[in-house]
Design goal:
Shape: elongated
Bound molecules: phosphoenolpyruvate, magnesium ion
Radius of gyration: 28 Å
Strand order of the largest sheet: 1-8-7-3-4-5-6-2
Largest sheet: 8 strands, mixed
Length: 538
């Protein structure tokens, strides 16, 4: 059987399925006589719960870092929330009920109240208040929480997992988890992701799967139950490749991108959309150097509106948590055709109506995108870059448009952040006037795919010319050198985001030229980091 879930973290898991048995706390209402003693029982249990959570916090900090562990601090604070505590003690006092019952009722009420709120953040707190209440009840009842039993590691099936359950799992016994509920941004999902366990959510799990053989492909979101030999073999191979990549990752994760002689470089990643961010994070890139925003247009049947774009850029910026995210404005035309733009047929589309030329002509489309980008810049560290630039006038015109949108946003009281603005160097014209262009922008990003095409006058789409489409041509390398020199003279940083940036035979050359940034496909980040850390630029 093959099912599709929503992946919250990549990776491959092969093993038997096991249903996670939550120990439901059976709470009975009881009449008490000594109110003060019952309140003390509750207060003591609450303090023990806080101690446990403190322990989880420390465990989680070690395993997944402070940011992701923060939920356990939130839980400790929730346990001290005045409304919550008063509701429980009041109930014990006025209704003379046992502490377990007062905690369960209050937990239920608060959870329902949060769930009904029109706010995603508060909705997620509904599960949290249930989780803390269950903890206190377990302590009051001396009960144990759910656990994974058995010798062999399993793929865990659950309705949902609370963060405290996730952190308590014996990870040596869990290969993956598959749940019915949970959101991609829930703390559980974040924890799973950072714990390196492939995980799927939104799978309609069934009790009868317990004990069956299964495969979770966290890269595609596919869930195979009772897979045949062929699938097992294929997945085993995929898993081995994955393990190799992860070993490299473990070794280099968190290490600086610095050469033996101390030259630091920004090693960023290229993405085509929101879904690629997981791979950027998994490969530990220091930022995103090229977000090809045209994919938002290519995937849609009509112009994506400001809100849809804003959400996409905001999500990427937030997930990158303060790391740089450079979004390239719409680059369609030439090899990237979008039906609803109704572009005329052209004899030479690569040299035709494309990229910034369209944006400066159809201002409404450009302004929509820029507004979405500026709004999203309030949520992270966004940079904007413009493709296919050939003149200083184009850049001046773009900057005027950006300024006018900033004014509009300010007038409406809409926030935006500081954005770095840069241009792609993809044409020989841009290289030749890079000294002048550098006066206008914060950075250059060299698009070697197009720069090679225009420098050598070779259509990058024409496979017949593949053998002479040579990005190592001295003309291309000199263009890069000149761009770096001119950029630096005017205080611009200079990067490469074309495919040549990932060419490891040239990494040393680029570093010696003085390149400041390389932006490559996520999977190249760690191999290049390894190379950089072993090389000297002297
Ligand atoms: C380039 O031209 O090098 C580049 C990065 O842009 P694209 O490949 O999207 O044209
Ligand atoms: Mg290009």
């Amino acid at each position: 059987m093959v099912l599709e879930g929503k992946s919250v973290f990549g990776g491959i898991a092969i093993g038997r399925l096991s249903i996670y048995n939550k120990k439901e706390n059976q709470v009975k209402r009881g009449k008490i006589t000594d109110v003060e003693a019952e309140i003390t029982r509750f207060t003591d249990a609450k303090e023990t719960a806080k101690e446990q959570l403190k322990g989880f916090y420390e465990k989680a900090v070690k395993e997944v870092g402070e940011v992701n562990a923060a939920i356990f601090e939130v839980h400790q604070m929730m346990l001290d929330d005045l409304d919550y505590v008063e509701s429980i003690t009041n109930m014990i006092r006025t209704q003379e009920v046992n502490a377990e019952f007062a905690v369960a009722s209050t937990g239920d009420n608060f959870s329902k109240m949060f769930a009904a709120m029109d706010d995603d953040y508060m909705k997620e707190r509904a599960a949290d208040v249930k989780d803390i209440s269950n903890r206190v009840i377990s302590i009051l009842q001396n009960a144990e929480n759910g656990s994974v039993t058995g010798e062999k590691p399993v793929i865990l099936l659950a309705d949902d997992l609370a963060p405290s359950e996730t952190v308590q799992l014996d990870k040596s016994k869990v290969l993956s988890f598959v749940t019915r509920h949970g959101s991609t941004n829930s703390h559980t999902a974040i924890l799973a992701r950072t714990m390196n366990i492939p995980a799927l959510i939104e799978v309609d799990i069934k009790e009868e799967w317990n004990g069956k053989m299964a495969v979770v492909d966290g890269y595609t979101g596919t869930f195979y139950i009772d897979p045949d030999e062929d699938i097992l073999k294929k997945m085993q191979e995929k898993k081995e490749e994955d393990i190799k990549a992860r070993e490299l990752l473990q070794e280099l994760k968190g290490k600086e991108d610095v050469t033996v002689d101390g030259k630091h470089i920004k090693l960023y990643a290229n993405i085509g959309g929101v879904k690629d961010v997981a791979s950027v994070l998994a490969n530990d890139a220091a930022g995103i150097g090229l977000f090809r925003s045209e994919f938002l247009y290519l995937e849609a049947d009509n112009y994506p509106d400001e809100e849809a774009q804003f959400q996409a850029y905001k999500t990427v910026a937030e997930n990158m948590a303060g790391k740089k995210v450079i979004v390239r404005t719409l680059d369609i035309g030439a090899d990237k055709q979008v039906d609803y733009f109704n572009l005329d047929h052209e004899e030479n589309p690569a040299m035709g109506y494309r990229a910034i030329r369209i944006c400066l002509d159809r201002r409404d489309i450009f302004r929509t995108q820029l507004r979405a980008l500026l709004r999203a810049s309030a949520y992270g560290n966004i940079g904007i870059m413009y493709p296919m630039i050939i003149s200083v006038d184009e850049v001046k015109e773009i900057k005027k448009i950006v300024e006018s949108i900033k004014t509009e946003l300010t007038e409406k009281g809409i926030e935006y952040g500081e954005v770095e603005q840069g241009i792609m160097i993809e044409t020989p014209a841009a290289v030749m006037i890079s000294d002048l262009l550098a006066e206008e922008v914060d950075f250059f990003s060299i698009g070697t795919n197009d720069l090679t095409q225009y420098t050598l006058a070779i259509d990058r789409q024409n496979s017949k010319l593949d053998n002479i489409y040579d990005s190592h041509h001295p003309a291309v390398l000199r263009m890069i050198q000149k761009t770096i020199e001119n950029g630096h003279k005017a205080g611009c940083w200079v990067g490469i985001c074309g495919e040549l940036g990932a060419d490891m035979t040239l990494t040393e050359t680029f570093l010696k030229m003085g390149i400041d940034e390389l932006s490559v496909s996520p999977t190249f980040v760690l191999p290049i980091r390894k190379l950089i850390r072993e090389m000297s630029t002297k």
